[in-house]
Amino acid sequence: MRHDWPLIEREDIGHFKVFHMVKDTRRHPTKGSLHHFYQLQSQDWVNVIPLTHDDEVVLVRQFRAGLSETTVEIPGGLVDPGESPVTAALRELREETGYEAEQAEELGWVHPNPALFDNRTYTYLARGARKAGEQKLDSGEAIEILTVPLAEIPAWIKEGKITHSLVISGFYRLFMERHVQV
């Protein structure tokens, strides 16, 4: 079976703060009919799991407009144009928490939502994270910092205290693929 859907036309819908929207008209690979698809084009995203010398994870609690709720996550954000994902991860760690780490190890990447988005989310582990200053938040951010022992993270996920799929994916990479003991 053919899986490619040839692009017939692309229409620019608009540029927004964190993404660009286009409407693609594509031909069905077997039926030949035309279908419209909406795509959100975005810079890549990063998440960073900051781990202190005491094996505590630095987490952030922040309001998420999509849910109209506050969620618990790991620091993260957009990769700026011309910036490497690892540089973005360490920058977001400093900005959102005031913590720093000398280096970060890539745990892997995922497509955050391939039904809509064209980008990747990279997750990094920043060992030896330490408080080095104050937060430098964007005007639309209000972030509370909390630390939780790494050993408690699986329970936090199971109990629904951490629900963000990209954060859970990052912890999966840490625990399962890297065989980190908790």
> What is the average per-residue confidence, as pLDDT, rounded to a whole number?
94
Please give the CATH architecture of the largest domain.
Answer: Alpha-Beta Complex
Low-confidence stretches: none
Radius of gyration: 19 Å
- SSE series: EEEEEEEHEEEEHH
Strand content: 35-45%
The major beta sheet can be summarized as:
5 strands, mixed
Explain what you see.
The protein is an alpha+beta fold. It folds into 2 domains: 7-41; 45-177, Alpha-Beta Complex (Nucleoside Triphosphate Pyrophosphohydrolase), CATH 3.90.79.10. 18% of the residues lie in helices and 42% in strands. The protein has 3 helices and 11 strands. It has helices at residues 85-97, 153-158, 165-177; strands at residues 7-15, 20-27, 34-41, 45-52, 56-64, 69-73, 76-78, 99-100, 105-110, 121-131, 143-149. The strands form 3 sheets. Strands 4, 7, 8, 9 and 10 form a 5-stranded mixed β-sheet that branches. The longest helix is centred in the middle third of the chain and has 13 residues, at 85-97. It is elongated. The chain starts with 6 loop residues before the first strand and ends in a 5-residue tail after the last helix. The mean pLDDT is 94.
